[in-house]
Amino acid sequence: MPLLLAAMFILFLSACSKNPPEEAKKKNSPPTDQVSEDEEEKVSFQFPLTGIETNKESDRRAVAAMINNHPAARPQSGLSKADIVYEVLAEGSITRFLAIFQSEIPDNIGPIRSARDYFIELAEGYNSLYIAHGYSPEAKQILLSGSIDHLNGMNYDGTLFKRATFRKAPHNSYITYDNIEKGAEAQEYDMAKPPAKLEFLNEDEVDKINGEKAESVTITYNPNSQPSAKYEFDQKSGKYFRYSDGEQTVEYETEQPVQLDNVIVIETTHSVIDSAGRRSIDLTSGGKAYLFQKGIMKNIEWKNQDGRVLPFEDGQLAKLVPGKTWINIVPKMENVSYSE
């Protein structure tokens, strides 16, 4: 009898080990709701103009501000937070910046300068709220037509736009992002219209960038003066630092340097159209371009895609390194040189 009981006990234990109770199964298997939560955490979005990951989709409208680049206006405020900056000649050999903000919000932007028609064209390509102080006759006509939402210091000098005491006019007009939002609300502008996304390289593609080594880029807008703009690639950070007339481009308040991931130079036709030296600049025909990424240069072309002047390679929109981009528009590629 004892042998029979022992055999029955062994059979019982064996059955338990092969068929664990339901409670044990539940403890040993991962909860289905927890798996789905983990998967949700892995979902990420990208800012449309930088390709930088963010944990929620950005619905902020782009703001495109005209920023002064006269020597008396340097260093500027806000440039380090711009997703994209177009640098283009105004009158003479002085350039101006169209700084497009979307992923980051600067506290203060300026000095703000007057509008030109070709800068308005560039701003329209990103469905931007356009910020300027003053205008050329051609630009005034466009702004009065209502074709682009805008805030202009001619209408808000001393209210939305403030005059800095440490600089002299016309190099002292500034606007805060808070005042941009106040002005947009007063004008009932929709600020929840993000721009269309650009194309960006993934990590593997960034590692495989190839082309001609070019870690120093110089752009001379005035042949009779020192280089107007210079970009130096920094191996440690993997980014480009920028210089204007030999001085590093930094933030006025913090001295934080502008750091860039893509530098693009495009060649297009420039024409002087009046006695004041104002220009007409072709932003539609396409043409030669250089693309600088990670210390490497590629000969490419530029095209106007839906109002945006952008780089193209082999007929396709060129992918950018995730991060910030500066685009220099020049009348001749002879103005540009680069070296290791």
From TrEMBL:
Region of interest (Disordered), ranges: 20-42
Domain of life assignment: Bacteria
Signal peptide limits: 1-17
Keywords: Signal
Residue span(s) of domain DUF3048: 49-189, 217-327
Pfam family, one: DUF3048
Stored InterPro entries: DUF3048_C, DUF3048_N, YerB-like_sf
Keyword Signal: yes
Name this protein carries in UniProt: DUF3048 domain-containing protein
Organism in which the protein naturally occurs: Lederbergia citrea
